[in-house]
């Protein structure tokens, strides 16, 4: 880059790349006079097929294709605007937090499936959240029914009080534990599944702690963001959804010249394919999945807090739409 700048000191360099973030982008942004135009890898793949029907692919050839694409179709590409530091931090934290939540859900589902095989009592004691701290800590201490029932009632009661459970809930759980019958007495299952359950419980506790730290950091950034008052006014949006809406909209609003362009970019606008008398409307798969998910999930949250959203949702249901279809239609609106 230094060599090019010495040769062309006043030039503005246009760079077309198949990514919008990463080490390469960060390195290029450190230099002045560089305009970066991200391109979707699918666009380049289709362009490559148009230029070379044999399907051959080499990095030098792709570099030349990117240059040609930028030269001939540059007006269809958007200039990368990285945005301010706070927005970029919020975006990364919100996306990472969502991945950790998905990981927690996966581990919790595996834990639930394992408990069904030898220790279903735990799922009766905590039917709502398999990833709760109290449940995980109990399994780390007493991973089988035999070990749990061998503990004195006073010790169990002290444990539950330490987990901030209410007195009436504690007595009900103690009674369930005392009356429970083992699903199996097979030592091979009990010993191996107990080890698996303790591993999963440890993973869940780590994820819970990390999610809490992400929540704390997101809240600090969010309240100081320029758009906080706007996202705080969205009915049904709590802390995490507010940060995700900021991440979805970004800093450079000029890249969305209409509501339709945002609908298309985010993937909440359906795709219409028509040939002759055949017309097909389907999902839009080529889109940022995190942003699409954000709008869909916010539509579901808004139903309970916004009268208009609730009315539109029930209107869609009355027309025979399934709940998920009705939420997608609300997200589009």
Description:
This protein has 333 residues and is mainly alpha-helical. Helix content is 64%, strand content 6%. It has 17 helices and 4 strands. The chain has helices at residues 2-7, 23-29, 41-51, 59-73, 85-118, 121-125, 133-141, 145-149, 153-162, 167-179, 187-223, 228-232, 239-249, 259-266, 289-302, 307-318, 323-332; strands at 13-17, 34-38, 271-275, 278-282. The strands form 2 sheets. Strands 1-2 form a two-stranded parallel sheet. The protein has a two-stranded antiparallel sheet with strand order 3-4. Helix 9 packs across helix 10 and helix 15 (289-302) crosses helix 17 (323-332). The longest helix has 37 residues, at 187-223. It is elongated. It starts with a helix and ends with a helix. The model has no long low-confidence stretch (mean pLDDT 89).
Can you summarize the main beta sheet? Answer: 2 strands, parallel
Beta-strand residue percentage:
5-15%
**Poorly predicted parts:** none
Helices, by number, come to: 17
Shape descriptor reads: elongated
Q: Largest sheet, order of strands side by side?
A: 1-2
CA radius of gyration: 27 Å
Number of strands: 4
Helicity range of the residues?
Answer: 55-70%
Query: Which structural class matches the secondary elements?
Result: mainly alpha
| Element pattern in H and E | HEHEHHHHHHHHHHHHEEHHH
Distance between the termini: 46 Å
Mean pLDDT: 89
């Amino acid at each position: 880059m230094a060599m090019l700048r010495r040769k062309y000191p006043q030039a503005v360099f246009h760079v077309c790349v198949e990514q919008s973030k990463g080490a390469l982008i960060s390195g290029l942004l450190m230099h002045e006079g560089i305009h970066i135009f991200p391109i979707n890898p699918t666009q380049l793949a289709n362009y490559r097929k148009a230029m070379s029907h044999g399907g051959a692919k080499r990095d030098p050839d792709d570099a030349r294709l990117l240059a040609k694409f930028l030269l001939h179709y540059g007006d269809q590409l958007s200039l990368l605007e990285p945005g301010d530091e706070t927005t970029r931090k919020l975006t990364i934290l919100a996306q990472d937090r969502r991945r950790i939540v998905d990981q927690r859900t996966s581990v919790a589902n595996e834990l639930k499936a394992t408990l069904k095989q030898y220790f279903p009592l735990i799922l009766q004691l905590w039917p709502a959240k398999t990833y709760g701290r109290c449940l995980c800590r109990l399994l780390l201490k007493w991973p089988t029914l035999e070990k749990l029932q061998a503990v004195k009632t006073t010790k169990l009661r002290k444990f539950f009080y330490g987990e901030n459970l209410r007195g009436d809930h504690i007595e009900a759980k103690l009674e369930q534990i005392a009356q429970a019958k083992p699903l199996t007495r097979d030592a091979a299952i009990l010993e191996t599944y107990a080890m698996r359950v303790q591993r999963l419980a440890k993973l869940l506790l780590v994820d819970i702690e990390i999610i809490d730290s992400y929540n704390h950091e997101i809240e600090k950034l969010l309240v100081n963001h320029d758009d906080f008052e706007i996202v705080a006014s969205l009915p049904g949006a709590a802390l995490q959804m507010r940060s995700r809406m900021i991440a979805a909209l970004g800093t450079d609003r000029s890249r969305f010249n209409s509501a339709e362009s945002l609908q298309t970019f985010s993937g909440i606008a359906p795709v219409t394919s028509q040939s002759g008398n055949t017309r097909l409307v389907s999902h839009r798969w080529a889109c940022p999945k995190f942003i699409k998910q954000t709008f869909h999930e916010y539509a579901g949250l808004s139903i309970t807090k916004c009268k208009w959203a609730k009315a539109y949702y029930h209107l869609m249901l009355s027309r025979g739409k399934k709940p998920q279809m009705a939420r997608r239609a609300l997200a589009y609106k």
